[in-house]
Amino acid sequence: MNSHSSPAIELRGASKVFRTPSGASHTAVRDLDLVVERGEFVAVVGPTGCGKSTTLTLISGLEEPTTGDVLVAGRPVTGIGDTTGFVFQQDAVFPWRTVLSNVMAGPRFRGVPKKEAKRRARDWLARVGLASFEDRYPHQLSGGQRKRVALAATFVNDPELLLMDEPFSALDVQTRALMSDELLELWSGTGASVVFVTHDLEESIALADKVVVMTAGPATVKEVFAIDLPRPRRVESVRLEPRFVEIYREIWSSLGEEVRITRERGAAHAA
Amino acid sequence: MPPESSTLRKAATASDRSRERARTARNRRLLVHGTRVLLLLGLLAAWEGLARAAVIDPFNFSMPSKIWDQISQWALHGTPQGPLWEQIWYTLYEALLGWVIGVIGGVVLGIALGRIRFLADVLGPYIKVLNALPRIVLAPIFLIWFGLGPASKVASAVVLVFFPVFFNAFQGAREVDRNLVANSRILGASNRQVTLQVVIPSATSWIFTSLHVSFGFALIGAIVGEYIGATKGLGLLVSASQGTFNAAGVYAAMVILAVVALLAEGLLAFLEKRLFRWKPADTSTGR
Question: What is the mean pLDDT of residues B5-33?
Answer without folding.
Answer: 80
